[in-house]
C-alpha cells in the first residue's frame, strides 16, 4: 500500500495517506490529536487507523497522558514494513546504507574514492553491496521502497545524471545516467539530489533541530557546498549553477586565482587542496614542522597528516589552518549577513577533523554577525549525524517521494 501512495488515489486512500503522513511526522500520536489535525470524525478516524494497522503500516506504541479518563493509545509507523537504501557519492568516499523507515541503519558499506573509482567501479560496488545486504537481511525486491542518492554536482536531477564534477579523483564521471543504471540492474525506484541538500534534510528532521526555521548547511572538503532552508523549506536552487558549486564567494578581490578562473574565492584559501598546498609550499621554504619527522617526501603529505599535526599543536600547520579559517569565516559571515539563519551546520573534513578550523570560523562569523545583527542569536553546530548525514537524507528522499 505504501508504494501506491504516489499514484492516483481515491478519497478514502487520500485520507489513509494523510493519516500515515501525520503519524510519520508527529508520532507517537493519539487518535484525538489526529482528529484535530485532520478534521475527521472520531468514527472515520478510528476506522482508518484500524485499516492502517491491518495493512501493517502503523502500530500501537504505548499510551499518552490521560485528561481524566483512560490513557489514549499512541500510534507510530511500523518501521520495518519496508526498507530503503541511501547512497552518498562524494569525492572522498561512496557510502551505502540500508535503513528501515525510521532511518535506523541496518547495514553499511564504504568505498574510498581514488583514481580507480570510475563510474563502472563505483556503480558495481553499489550494486554488489546492495545485493549483499538484501541477502544478509533476507529482504526481497518487494520489501525495498527505493534507492536515494546524494551526490556531488553538477547534476541533472530530472534525468538522474551526474554531469561533470570538478576535482573528482578518477576519470569518466561525465554525463553518467546513474539513476537509470541502478534502476535497471536492481529493479528499484531511484531518486537523486545534491548531497548537501540530502544532508541538510537529514539533520533538519533530527529532533534537536526541528525548532529552527532558517538553516544554512555547509560541507567543506575537496570542494565547498552549501544548502539552505528558509522558513522551514529547502531552497533547492537550479542545476544551472555549474560544476563549481557554491564555494566561490569572493573574499579577496585581488587574491589567489581559483579553479573557477576567478580570483580570491573562499575555495582558493580553505579547501583541502588549498590547505595542503600551503603546507607543502611552507615546508619547501624550510619552515619547521613535525611533518618533517613523519614523512620523507614532502609531496606525499596528505590532508589527514595535516589534521593530525594540527591536533598535536604543530605551530606551522596551526597557523595555516587559522589563516584558512579566517577566509572561510569571512565567507560564512557574508552568507549569514544575507540569509540571517538561526542555525548554521558546518560539516565536511575541514570542520569535523580539526576543532581549530571550526573554532576559528565560528568565532569570526559570530563576531561579524553580531556587529550587524546584535539582537540575533545564531547557533553553530557540526550536526548530529556525522558522515552518514548525506546517505540518511538520501534515504529520506525516497520516503518523501511516496508521501508528498
TrEMBL record:
Pfam families: ROK. InterPro entries: ATPase_NBD, ROK, WH-like_DNA-bd_sf, WH_DNA-bd_sf. It comes from the Bacteria. The keyword Ribonucleoprotein does not apply. Keywords: Carbohydrate metabolism, Xylose metabolism. SUPFAM superfamilies: Actin-like ATPase domain (SSF53067), Winged helix' DNA-binding domain (SSF46785). The keyword Transmembrane does not apply. Transcriptional repressor of xylose-utilizing enzymes. PANTHER family: BIFUNCTIONAL UDP-N-ACETYLGLUCOSAMINE 2-EPIMERASE_N-ACETYLMANNOSAMINE KINASE, ROK (REPRESSOR, ORF, KINASE) FAMILY. Belongs to the ROK (NagC/XylR) family. This is ROK family protein. It comes from Sporosarcina soli.
Amino acid at each position: 500500500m505504501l508504494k501506491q501512495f504516489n499514484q492516483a488515489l481515491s478519497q478514502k486512500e487520500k485520507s489513509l495517506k494523510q493519516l500515515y503522513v501525520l503519524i510519520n511526522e508527529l508520532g507517537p500520536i493519539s487518535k484525538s490529536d489526529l482528529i484535530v489535525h485532520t478534521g475527521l470524525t472520531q468514527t472515520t478516524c478510528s476506522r482508518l487507523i484500524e485499516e492502517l494497522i491491518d495493512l501493517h503500516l502503523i502500530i500501537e506504541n504505548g499510551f499518552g497522558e490521560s485528561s481524566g479518563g483512560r490513557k489514549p493509545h499512541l500510534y507510530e509507523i511500523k518501521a520495518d514494513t519496508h526498507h530503503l537504501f541511501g547512497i552518498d557519492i562524494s569525492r572522498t568516499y561512496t557510502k551505502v546504507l540500508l535503513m528501515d523507515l525510521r532511518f535506523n541503519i541496518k547495514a553499511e558499506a564504504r568505498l574510498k574514492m581514488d583514481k580507480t573509482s570510475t563510474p563502472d567501479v563505483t556503480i558495481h560496488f553499489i550494486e554488489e553491496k546492495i545485493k549483499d545486504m538484501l541477502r544478509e537481511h533476507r529482504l526481497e525486491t518487494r520489501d525495498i521502497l527505493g534507492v536515494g542518492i546524494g551526490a556531488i554536482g553538477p547534476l541533472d536531477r530530472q534525468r538522474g545524471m551526474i554531469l561533470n564534477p570538478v576535482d573528482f579523483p578518477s576519470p569518466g564521471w561525465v554525463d553518467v545516467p546513474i539513476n537509470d543504471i541502478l534502476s535497471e540492474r536492481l529493479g528499484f525506484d531511484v531518486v537523486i539530489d545534491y548531497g548537501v541538500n540530502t544532508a541538510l534534510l537529514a539533520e533538519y528532521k533530527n529532533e534537536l533541530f526541528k525548532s529552527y526555521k532558517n538553516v544554512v548547511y555547509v560541507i567543506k572538503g575537496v570542494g565547498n557546498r552549501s544548502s539552505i532552508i528558509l522558513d522551514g523549506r529547502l531552497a533547492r536552487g537550479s542545476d544551472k549553477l555549474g560544476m563549481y558549486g557554491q564555494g566561490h564567494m569572493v573574499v579577496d578581490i585581488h587574491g589567489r586565482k581559483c579553479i573557477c578562473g576567478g580570483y580570491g574565492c573562499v575555495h582558493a584559501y580553505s579547501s583541502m587542496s588549498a590547505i595542503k598546498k600551503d603546507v607543502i609550499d611552507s615546508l619547501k621554504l624550510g619552515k619547521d614542522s613535525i611533518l618533517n619527522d613523519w614523512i620523507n617526501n614532502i609531496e606525499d603529505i596528505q590532508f589527514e597528516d595535516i589534521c593530525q599535526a594540527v591536533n598535536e599543536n604543530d605551530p606551522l600547520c596551526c597557523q595555516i589552518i587559522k589563516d584558512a579559517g579566517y577566509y572561510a569565516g569571512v565567507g560564512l559571515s557574508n552568507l549569514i549577513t544575507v540569509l540571517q539563519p538561526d542555525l548554521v551546520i558546518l560539516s565536511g573534513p575541514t570542520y569535523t577533523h580539526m576543532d581549530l578550523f571550526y573554532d576559528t570560523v565560528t568565532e569570526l562569523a559570530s563576531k561579524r554577525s553580531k556587529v550587524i545583527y546584535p539582537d540575533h542569536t545564531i547557533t553553530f553546530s557540526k550536526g548530529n549525524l556525522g558522515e552518514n548525514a548525506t546517505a540518511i537524507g538520501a534515504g529520506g528522499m525516497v520516503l518523501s517521494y511516496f508521501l508528498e
